[in-house]
Amino acid sequence: MTIGDVLAAMGVLAAVGVGWAAALLLAALAFPERVRRAAEATVAAPGACLARGLGIFVATGVVAGALYHSPAGPVRLLGGALWAGLGLMAALGSAGIARLLGGRIQGVGTHMTPFAALTRGTALYVLAGYLPILGWFLIAPLALLFSLGGAWTALRPVRSPASGMAGPAPTPLAPPELGAGGMA
Q: What are the sequence ranges of the domains in the chain?
């Protein structure tokens, strides 16, 4: 292994981190109501989010892995689509966790805009996964499972309390303002 190989690996890791942070910010800005619901679900029932995320990851991962290793091209494409869907769910749920972190950073007493708080929460979330040993084998996998569980809750239809019927989730015309604690 040469120094060029080491630098290439470090460059790939840096690019993945920047790309993941950009995906989280995109999800938070494009789907503020879903991200808020994912954040609330993660805080309200962390154990349920973790269990749900584990179930989603195992079920989808097994099916996607089996399909992706098929020799037939369309079946492999379906496996890749399942992996992409899992990644999209993880981005949505991770944006909720990053929003929580940003709200807590903002609540420490620093005055910043909601976007600055979200950006700092995203940076903290992504960089925590780069922490040697602990980040690689504990923080990042747990964050993935929590994010999948939170995203599952955020993507489910909202039930109206009066009728008990599921309806479409409300979609705000303008993104909600982040208040103290990062919640709308």
A: 14-153
